[in-house]
Amino acid sequence: MQSQITSESSKSRFEAYNRLQAAAVAFGEKLPIPEIVAIGGQSDGKSSLLEALLGFRFNVREVEMGTRRPLILQMVHDLSVLEPRCRFQDEDTEEYGSVIVSATAVADVIRSRTEALLKKTKTAVSPKPIVMRAEYAHCPNLTIIDTPGFVLKAKKGEPETTPDEILSMVKSLASPPHRILLFLQQSSVEWCSSLWLDAVREIDSSFRRTIVVVSKFDNRLKEFSDRGEVDRYLSASGYLGENTRPYFVALPKDRSTVSNDEFRRQISQVDTEVIRHLREGVKGGFDEEKYRSCIGFGSLRDFLESELQKRYKEAAPATLALLEQRCSEVTDDMLRMDKKIQATSDVAHLRKAAMLYTASISNHVGALIDGAANPAPEQWGKTTEEERSESGIGSWPGVSVDIKPPNAVLKLYGGAAFERVIHEFRCAAYSIECPPVSREKVANILLAHAGRGGGRGVAEASAEIARTAARSWLAPLLDTACERLAFVLGSLFEIALERDLKQNSEYEKKTENMDGYVGFHAALRNCYSRFVKNLAKQCKQLVRHHLDSVTSPYSMACYENDYHQGGVFGSYYKPNQGSGNSFCFELSDTGRDEPMKDQENIPPEKSNAQETTPGKGVENLITVPETPSPDQPCEIMYGLVKKEIGNGPDGVGARKRVARMTGNRNIEPFRIQNGGGGLMFGNTDNGLKSSSAYTEICSSAAQHFARIREVLVERSVTSTLNSGFLTPCRDRLVVALGLDLFAVNDEKFMDMFVAPGAIDVLQQERQQLQKRQKILQSCLTEFKTVARSL
Prior knowledge:
Blueprint: H1 2-27, E1 35-40, H2 46-54, E2 71-77, E3 85-88, H3 103-121, E4 130-136, E5 142-146, H4 162-174, E6 179-186, H5 197-203, E7 210-215, H6 218-221, H7 227-235, E8 247-248, H8 260-281, H9 288-291, H10 297-343, H11 347-370, H12 377-380, H13 384-391, H14 414-430, H15 439-451, H16 457-490, H17 492-507, H18 518-550, H19 652-663, H20 693-731, H21 733-742, H22 746-750, H23 758-789
Parallel strand pairs: 1-5, 1-6, 2-4, 6-7, 7-8
Antiparallel strand pairs: 2-5, 3-4
């Protein structure tokens, strides 16, 4: 009578845990339910052991389920069920489908469900389990999770990473401390050469919750000759823990179709033959007192059933307490969901909740700009290369070298990523030098200035060239910098959402949770994106204004005499910048009769010869009324040559002199027409390494360009970008979002909350909560009954 009461109590406990397990699988509940997890290498006999435990065959080996998805087998011992009845739990609910009697149909369901999920997820394996409930008079009350078998190499057609994925998934399934490991290994494998024993040690180093099963034990029997060999092997000393005693199991090898009764008779017969061989076929037999309880399938089956029941009984009080807690949490979630659905018609409540949520997101954006490391930058940050790729902007325009600022490989976001882009812009700006200028351009500018008179023709011409180059080459850099910075700030919205979600979860502030309001979230995202785009547009205008100012003819940036490398603006490292020679253009004597054609746009090389004062080479051809000073090497080019070359009323003398100059092809540095100071210059081929106006203008233009660049970068742009982007995000974001979202009438405001899909999502969430509440409440009631029987 007492044994019958104990049996009924064990069965009720088992049924309660089975239902709880079904609920956990359906709703993703993480409950510390005692479970047995079967692990081992492929072909180590896990599938045959499962069939033996079930008491019938369903060709599980043919579907190779162990290589695809875990299978939770819930075996229910029911004396009234003379033929096995199997039912599969629906993939996304706690409900079970119709009864399946045919063993072939069971295998087909496992195969089809596995293939469908793997096709949907586009993976080779999946951790999502298949749950099968088997009721039978000849199976124990036992639940086992069968896992994919370990493999060394992927099968043909599978990804090469499949073995690693299986190992990782099995470790994840076996790691929870409430799970019992059932580790199978063939008897033909020595413990010292076991492939998977180390993997088990990584999960359970002391083997305290591991049951070791040596499968296919009959293959090893013929190797034993005396009692000492048998006992040493059965003890497994030196490889397993001191208190670990393996189970040695052999099962029928015949895979032919037989009845379920015959299958069970064969299992029993194999057990009997193994014991008989150890007693009679081995000299001296074996230590039966010590090892008899560990040999045979029947011994393993009884131990697994009793061990699981013991774990169920020990875990029942803690499980009951946890269920009460979960039921209370689900009830609270239901109340919040009801309030949220009711609030869809309460405009004032929605305005308040939406405003608080918007303010929270704005505050998180500000915190990320000021510096934060939550959420994890490793997951949410981006490297410089990822920013370039995802923004679609790519490299910096006009920059041929690869710009790699400090910390380029680190994943950053917020203020840190913003500063990195600023530094990257500086690197790009200092990588650009004044581009080569053709003689025609120099002549057009210089001659126009010379015609106006005055003594600053070369200086003004070189300054104009530098200003033109700066406007042409630096403007695209400024636009790119603004676009990159806008991308960095735009990325903060998703990070701010994640930060708000985590903060609410940590501090349990769920009163203002706006999940489910799809229309509102879309509107908030659009407003934030529009705000950042407007900032980028304004910043582009501001930095363009600074560029126009510094390149204005009235700007003194080109005439600051105290400029030098680092000069009045302080010393600053200029990455990717060439040597000082790259700042100026040098022109050496070509030594040709013909002027350069294809080479006019290439900066001249620097001459090492001693420079002579321009004009001395043609001293015998022209009359200079006053000798140029050595400090004014290009004075003749400034239009200071007087009109005394020709004395005739119509300038005949001058024309004749010019004609003689033209006829002499070896002297063509300068030609002065009509005594009016008009200038022309070309290439010299008379061997004199004299400095020309072209050389001086190119060199001076390069210096002016560098001066403009440094003034623009160091004095204007950096501070403008900071104040143009970051300050509005800190000070005006919440106001700007509030005006866009809430400064509207009630009807337009409610469009964000009653948009198609928003209410439906909330209703679906409530239905899921209601189902979860119902099943958990049912489990709680059942466990209270179980607890009273303990």
